Every structure is written in structure tokens, then in C-alpha cells.
Amino acid sequence: MNEEILALTNEAKQYADLLNPLRDEISRVIVGQREIVDRLVISLLADGHVLLEGVPGIAKTLLIKTLAQGIDASFSRIQFTPDLLPADITGTKIFNQQTVSFTTVKGPIFSQFVLADEINRAPPKVQSALLEAMQERQVTIQGETYPLPSPFFVLATENPIEHEGTYPLPEAQMDRFMFKIIMGYPSRTEELTILDRFTEGVKITPKPVITADTILTLQQFLPRIYADIEIKNYVTSIVDATRNSSRYGLELGDYIAYGASPRATIFLVLGAKAHAMLRGRGYVVPEDVKAIAGEVLRHRIILTYQAEADGITTDSVIYQILQRVPVP
Q1: Most buried among 26, 43, 175, 274, using CB within 10 Å?
Q2: Any residues with CB less than 8 A from the CB of 15 and at least 6 apart, and which?
Q3: H or E element at residue 195
Q4: 34-215 maps to which CATH number?
């Protein structure tokens, strides 16, 4: 290990130590789900956004609220409904009769942490109101552009069970989420802990253990983490395998309609760097890429009807790709 990478590793260890209290503080409120917590932190470090899918009642809302409280950042929850309007998210201008002028009223999107709850319940026009905010970190209200605060983190949730009265997210918006995370049920032991905590009047309020400015410092450090050319070739091969599977000896041509976009390549490298930093390393190893590949790719690979008929899922496709693409 050369001196430059050693120096990066020492710096990464210091930053990882800053993040450990945040992870522990979240664990005081959220029982289990440690891997989900790590994925949220990784996405935050990489300055990305998360789409969280899970059945009702498994603490999706509580998780993002606790993360915001642990970072001492502003938090807004937007409950998506069929009658929601874009202005309900971004804000609007109202006429002030006293001053005979228009005043801008900013919407809930002007927070550092935004929970878009049940995002698929609103029509595409409303969902698209998030697009500019997520990509450009700004909002345009009737011709005037306003910057959003930093850090800016959107966590959208969707319920995989109900399909009545829901609208699938446009592919362009799906692609802007760094991760799509599937949140499962707690274990039986974890559920006993949840039962004790929430039925015996035990209320745990998370304390801020890290500042928003520190998060910005970590985000600025992240690109400096070393990713060798072999790692970059490995990432591009994984993404290429979603588009040209036959090159890698995979028979997935009948199952994949569209492969992953270039954003997948970018987020795989950034996510791998954040995964390395969380573990106190200043360099990326193939295991970092593998660890976050599922969350980066599962919403970017579009399967055919044949895949659905044969019971093929995006996760099974990703697994085959990771098994076949040579590891450096």
C-alpha cells in the first residue's frame, strides 16, 4: 500500500469513527435493519437519493425521520395522495394585497431531508415535480429558480402490495434514485424487542450526534477515495452485462428489455467508495461493488414479459451477472 492510499485510509478511518455514533443512535430507535441503515448512510455520503420499498408498518417513515434527527437537519414529510398538486411540493406565489405584490411561499421540498411517503399514490405530473429538485438541487417556481439546502436527501417510499389507485414511477425518475432498497420484516427476536419498546411506554428520542456541515465534509472527501482502473473496468463490465449479456456467456437476452443506464456506472463507483469509507478504507475492493450492486441495479434493469412469465426477477438477473463477470 503506497503512502497516498495509506493517508486516505487513515482519513477514512477518522470519518468512519464520526459515522459510528450516527448508526448507533439510529439503532437505539430502529430495531434491527442495520444493513438498511448502512445503505441509507452510503447513499447520503454519495449525495444520492433512495427509493425504499416495503409493506406498511415496518418503520420506513420512522427510519428517515430518525436519520434526520441524528444529523440535526431539517426534515419534511410529504404524504403523496391522488389529489396532490405540484405546487403542494415545490411551493407557489401568492398575491399580497397589502404590498400589492406576489410573495413566494416555499413548499416542503425546501428541507435537507425529505420523505416522499407512498410516492406512487400521486399522478406522474406530481411525481415529476421532484425531478428537478433531485437532479439539479434547485426548484423553479413560476419562472424563478431557488437553490435547495445542502445536504439534500430524498427518501421515497412505496407499498409493493396495493396497486389500486397507484401510478408507476416514470423510468426517468426511477433512474434518479441512487438506490432501490427492499425493506423486509424483522426477525422474531427483533419483533419481541419492538413489542417491548412500543407497548410499555418506552419513548426514545434520538439526539443529534453529527452536524450537517460534517456530512458535507464527508461528501467532499468521498471522491478522493481510490478506485483502481481494474475496479472501474469491473464496474463497466457489470453494467455492460445488463445490456449485452451474451458477451459474458449469459443467456438473458429474452429476459432483459433494457439494460442499466450510465448513472448505474457512476453510482456503483460512488456507492463502492462510500461502502469502503464506512469500513475505514481509503480504497475500493471488488466486495464493495458487489455489496451495493443490487440496490443500484434493481430499478434500472427493465425485464420483458417473458421474464415475468418465467418467474425471473431483476435480483436473480443481477445475481447471475455478478457470478459470471470476472472479479479483478
Answers
A1: 274
A2: 218, 221, 277
A3: helix 188-199
A4: 3.40.50.300
pLDDT digits (tens, 9 = 90+) for 91-150: 888 877 777 778 778 889 999 999 988 888 888 778 777 877 888 888 888 878 889 988
Q: Three-state DSSP class for 317?
A: helix
CB 273 within 8 A of CB 281: no
pLDDT tens figures, 164-178: 656 777 777 788 899
Selection from 183, 176, 172 nearest residue 43 by Cα: 176
Instruction: Indicate the burial class of 263 (C-beta count within 10 angstroms; 0-12, 13-18, 19 or more).
Output: middle
**SS3 category, 56:** coil
- pTM of the entire structure? 0.88
Q: How far apart are CA 321 and CA 317, in angstroms?
A: 6
Instruction: State percent of the chain over pLDDT 90.
Output: 29
First-to-last C-alpha distance (Å) of the chain: 17
CATH number among 3.50.50.60, 1.10.8.80, 1.10.3660.10, 3.40.30.10, domain 225-324: 1.10.8.80
Give domain limits for the chain: 34-215, 225-324
Backbone angles phi, psi at 80, to 5 degrees: -80, 130
C-alpha grid cell, residue 282: 481509503
